[in-house]
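ok trying again, last paste got cut off:
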Amino acid sequence: MRLQLALNVKNLDRAIAFYSEMFASPAHKQRPGYANFEIAEPPLKLVLFEHPDADENLNHIGVECQDEGTFDAAVERLTKSPLATGDVAETGCCHAKQSKFWVPQPDGLAWEWYYILDDAPENQDATSSQGVCCGKTPAQDASADQVCCA
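nice, full thing came through this time. structure:
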């Protein structure tokens, strides 16, 4: 597993240059208005959404599971816990196909737990099949069981 940090940035090109230099790592994936990094040390999935008018830098946080067994164990553990979780969904979003669910913390910040099924599906755009646009803040723009953004 590795933590995911999704940030809103005002200028994507400038942010990619900054984080590439800071973590000595090139962007793993770039699309219009979107980039992500798979940083080895510290283990981090850094996701950038270009939102020039965003009021906050933090978009959302999450946990990327590296294999299906780890994801399934997290689903089982968290759905049996007293924490409220969203339903597990398989979705196409943010230029990848994923299984994911959301766990909102007490102050409303939603944690995304996900496992990537296909990192580069053909014809994948930046919206889920439900029309929820990637880059929205789960706690503010949709319910905790929304299926988009990684």
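cool. Strands lie at 2-9, 29-31, 34-39, 44-50, 58-65, 89-93, 96-104, 110-118. The two ends are 14 Å apart (CA to CA).
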